[in-house]
Structures are given as structure tokens and as C-alpha cells.
Amino acid sequence: MPIESAATLKKEVKLVLKQQGYSVKRNGLFLLENNEREERRKVHEIAKAERVKEKENFLRRNLKLIKNHLIDGKKLEIEKIDPVLIEVEPESEEERLFRWWNIIWWSLPYERAYGRQMRFIVWDKYHDAPIGLIGLQSPILSWGPRDKYLGIAPDERDFWVNQSLSAQRIGALPPYNDILGGKLVSLLMTADIVRQKFRKKYRNQKTVLEKRILPSNLLFITTTGAYGKSSVYNRLRFKDETVAKFIGYTQGNGTFHIPNALYEDLVKYLEKRKYDVRRGYGSGPSRKLRLIDLSLQLLGFANGISHGIKRALYLFPMVHNLEDVIQKGERPEWTDRNIEEMTAFWKEKWALRRAENNKSYLEFDSEDFATQTLLDIEKYKELLS
Description:
Strand content: 5-15%
Number of strands: 11
CATH topology of the domain at 34-49 and 75-252 and 308-359: Aminopeptidase
Oligomer: single chain
Helix content: 40-55%
Mean pLDDT: 90
CATH class of the domain at 34-49 and 75-252 and 308-359: Alpha Beta
């Protein structure tokens, strides 16, 4: 790549950052002009638009399948909601449903899953409709707030972190989201069946880095609130137990502010300068972070992967004595949570009360939603033009 192309690429980066609401200072530092919640949502629009445009044919082709399993709010009988966790298998109808909603529904764009992966659709057997999604993957190996809270020593990270998962996606779909279905989905993520499936799936598997076989225990799950603290996870309890613990904030690092097309240009930029840009199995999300950070620093941007949006970090223990298991070597005392009891608890504590006080769920219309989805696809395409 000629030297003058670096200047062109730098202009491209500046343009993308400004589109997302950043101002770029003379010293190369880029900062959000407005860090309010709604403005932070807008920061993700370009990345989401990219995903939608890339999968447009898939989204259109599967809209009929989605409509077949959508329920109007007026037909939702809350007392009869009967959830089950369906593990998503490759090339299945459930995978198409999961992918479709994962792309369309959330303002925070999906990212490729790395390492270990478990995906579930929370399915309402009575209404034959999806309540929500749970997408789990291998967590970041070194994560300051988590490691400090749990007392994980640097030389033991591989051992303990590989007995956990990170929730990339947790949430409810319409019309269940309007009756606090997100709390139900979050509760069910900690159900006994999830850790049982983890044990069966990853028994006797070697870790990528150390090539050793670790206990196939799912001791805890971590996730982040997309735009700060989460109203779903805060005060999330089951009976007398705290299900989600707030343990701090992330540093505000990541890659979503660099769209995929721009990322590929940055990789080519590094490759022309003889840097090692190999990517592939085992490299994980940290590899993308390092490549983006290096390229932006070379182009003169001071904060590289630091996008400035700090997310609240939550811990979902699957054992009662998590800290003692990690710090003292005690045997895990597993939580006892089944789907039926958690569903009944959710209905009494949240869903029925919400429905009584807020009738917005009744307004959801599946035909209107399908029409709006097609309009949104066009909107995202225009955003990238």
C-alpha cells in the first residue's frame, strides 16, 4: 500500500467515527460528543446496518418462518406461558430462528462467537412462540473486574475461565419483552439444565491454549449491560437468592466502533507493512482487538480500541460458594433451579404485575412488525450508502 493510502485510510476512519457521534481531536483522541444513553445506542447503528445488509437475503427469505411463530399481544395468555429451553443445533430450523432474531431485534449488533458456544431459544410450548434467546460463548481470558472480584490469580485464569461462559446475547422477544420477559430469560440461563448440557458437551475436551483437560463444570456466567447498568439484571432474584451480581464496569474497550469493511481495510494496511495479521481458529476476539488497536495507533489515533462506552459487568453464579471454590478449593455447592419453579416465580413477581399496570404488550401486532422489519432493512441499507 503506498504511503499516501495511509492518509486516505485515516480520513476513512475519521469519517466513520464522526458518523457515530465521535469528535476527533488534533492529538488523535476521539471522544463521544454526547454520552447519554440514547446517543450510545446510535453509536452501534453502522455496525448493525452492516450485519443487516450482509444478511438481507437471509432475513427476507426467513420472514415467513418468523411470522409463523409470532403471537399478537392480544392473544398472549400470561398465566399459560410454558417455557422450555431448546438448544440450537447447526442447520436446524431453530438456528434459522436464532440467527434471524439475533440480527434484527437488538440495537447492539451481534458479533461472531468464539471458542465454546451454546445457544438456546426459550420457547413457549403453549403459544408455540419464542420467548427469547440465550447466546453463550467463551469469555475473555483476562478481565480485570471479574478476576479481581473472584480472586482469580493470573496463572490460574485458564483453569477457572474455561469453567465459565460469557452471555453475548440474553433477552426477550416481542410481545414477551413488554411483560418483563427479559427477567425470565435471564433466570432460565441459570437453570440446572444449562450446566448439565455444558458438562455433557465439553467433557474431556482440551483447552485451546494449554491443551489440557479441565473439569467440565459451568461455575458461572458473565455478561454486560449494553448501555450501563441493566434494569433486567439489577435486583434479579429467585426466591431469596441473588441471581445476577453487579461487580463493576468494563474499561470501555472493544471493536464495534470499527465496521467490518473498515476492519478489513485496516488488516490490509498492516499486511502491506509486513505485520503478522494471521487470523483463525484459536485467535479469538482478542486478536481482532490487537489488530485494530495496532492499526489505529499507527494511523495516529490515540485511543485505538477505547470507544469510551463503559458497560456494567454482571456475574451469574451457578454455585452458592463460588468465591470459596476458586480461592479455597472447596467443592461446588450447586444451585438448584428448575424451569417450572423459576417460571412460576417470574409470573407472580413480575409478569402478572407488569401486565396489570402496563398494557403495552397488547399493542404488538405480528403483521405490523413484519412490515416494519422490511422498512428497517431498507433504512439500514440507506445508512451505508
